[in-house]
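Sequence design from tokenized structure. All designs in this work follow the same two-part layout: the structure record, then the generated sequence. An example of the structure record is given first.
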């Protein structure tokens, strides 16, 4: 990956000093370097077209978070022992609206991962067309294997500090890996108690207390709406396709549901332990029971479907023959080798449900083989878009029906596809949705930053 980043750096001219400064100023942050490299590489023609943005330092400023908060999260486990985790909130860019981005609870969380996610979020949020800035947060706390009481005490401690930095008009966090409805509930309860106010400070809330219908489904459904629009544009669709979806969390589950509704057959899903292959098509009811009700491992799937096969280890899922691959687990889960296997097996359609699931080598392989490649910032923007719809409903003290939200989500995803295709074509890179997403997302934020002066 290092070699590829070096190569990319070499194709930069106007923006090379910006990337050099990011790498120098943020040592030991490989994921952040990777995300910035990918974006700057595609923004070179934008910098050439807009010398006024270069002169105003827009590129230098957009790669530096407005604020980074790192804090101690002490809590007491069920044995009475004090545990200490580290909490993060990266408030990356507020040019077009309050910071918005999820909270990730996973042992791998560190500042590099927070910054890569917060940086990506700026452009993704911009692409939704809604007024939301970019941010991200989380902790190295692992909710897996913890009791409800332990998760609650952690969430309350986490929010005790976070509450000082967020607010319905300032920064509105949401869920991400490890943060589902239970965690959002505990965090919201603590915020309300500390502030004595009932506001839409978090999204992904329960339906009884300010949540939006269709938020749970939004990222997975949105991914399929986006990919369906992209396929339709090429005279194709999900109908009759064989699909592989990695992960079995929130995004993966609803991607499988919508892809199936659109006529595809999903034959494999995974978790961090391994993957299941079910030639007859994944039984999503079984997956939901294993993951959402029992909070168990996907290996249990074979107890529900004896003809299915479980294989330990995650990477092998990409060796399964498919027409469409939807990586919905985590960053860098498809490397160059896996991408090549997918291509060799005839897969020509890839939609990123997770954030940055494909390494730069993998993206290069997909693109050089003419695959239809939907990058995360565009393809998985449905979650945050629906979070913004939740914010609107909270502000209005009103709730839309499931269909109203779902229709808006559908329109947003189709528009994102149209806008990024157009941006790619306008800059002479027709069909390059990676470039299109970066350019369309960036231009809106750049205009806002330019208008607001150097203080931002
Ligand atoms: P969940 O925690 O609900 O699910 C994550 C899934 O990915 C689980 O099946 C998990 O398995 C698996 N996974 C996690 N880490 C690894 C790993 N290192 N290797 C293999 N599998 C792994 O998270 P979400 O579904 O919410 O998020 C998935 C991805 O989508 C993330 O990249 C997230 O940032 C992104 N995303 C999420 C949005 C949302 O609305 N939720 C919005 C936009 C993007 P296990 O249970 O074993 O850990």
């Amino acid at each position: 990956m290092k070699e590829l980043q070096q190569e990319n750096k070499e194709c930069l001219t106007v923006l090379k000093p910006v990337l050099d400064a990011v790498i120098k100023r943020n040592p030991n942050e490989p994921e952040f370097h990777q995300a910035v490299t990918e974006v700057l590489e595609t923004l070179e023609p934008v910098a050439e077209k807009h010398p006024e943005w270069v002169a105003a330092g827009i590129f230098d400023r957009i790669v530096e978070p407005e604020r980074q908060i790192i804090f101690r999260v002490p809590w007491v486990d069920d044995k009475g022992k004090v545990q200490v985790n580290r909490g993060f909130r990266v408030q990356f860019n507020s040019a077009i609206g309050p910071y918005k981005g999820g909270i990730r609870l996973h042992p791998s969380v560190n500042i590099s991962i927070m910054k890569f996610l917060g940086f990506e979020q700026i452009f993704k949020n911009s692409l939704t067309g809604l007024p939301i800035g970019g941010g991200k947060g989380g902790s190295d706390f692992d909710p897996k294997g913890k009791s409800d009481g332990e998760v609650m005490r952690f969430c309350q401690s986490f929010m005790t500090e976070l509450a000082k930095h967020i607010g319905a008009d300032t920064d509105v966090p949401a869920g991400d890996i490890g943060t589902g409805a239970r965690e959002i509930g505990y965090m919201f309860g603590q915020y309300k108690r500390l502030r004595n106010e009932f506001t839409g400070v978090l999204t992904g809330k329960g339906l009884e207390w300010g949540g939006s219908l269709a938020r749970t489904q939004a990222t997975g459904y949105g991914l399929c709406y986006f990919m369906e629009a992209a396929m339709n544009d090429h005279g194709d669709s999900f109908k009759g396709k064989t699909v592989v979806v990695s992960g079995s969390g929130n995004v993966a589950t609803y991607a499988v549901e919508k892809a199936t509704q659109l006529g595809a057959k999903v034959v494999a899903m995974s978790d961090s332990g391994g993957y299941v292959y079910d030639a007859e098509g994944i039984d999503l009811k079984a997956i939901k029971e294993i993951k959402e009700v029992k909070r168990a491992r996907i290996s249990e799937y074979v107890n529900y479907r004896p003809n299915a096969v479980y294989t330990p280890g995650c990477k092998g899922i990409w060796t399964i023959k498919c027409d469409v691959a939807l990586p919905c687990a985590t960053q860098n889960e498809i490397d160059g080798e896996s991408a090549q296997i997918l291509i060799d097996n005839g897969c020509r359609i890839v939609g990123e449900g997770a954030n940055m699931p494909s390494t730069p080598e993998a993206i290069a392989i997909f693109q050089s083989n003419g695959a239809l490649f939907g990058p995360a910032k565009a393809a998985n923007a449905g979650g945050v878009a629906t979070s913004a719809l939740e914010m609107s409903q909270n502000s209005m003290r009103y709730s839309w029906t499931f269909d109203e939200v779902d229709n808006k989500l559908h329109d947003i995803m189709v528009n994102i596809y149209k806008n990024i295709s157009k941006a790619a074509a306008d800059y002479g890179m027709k069909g390059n949705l990676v470039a299109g997403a970066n350019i369309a997302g960036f231009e809106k934020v750049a205009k806002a930053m330019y208008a607001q002066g150097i203080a931002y």
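The longest helix spans residues 402-426. We note this feature because it recurs in several other targets discussed in the main text.
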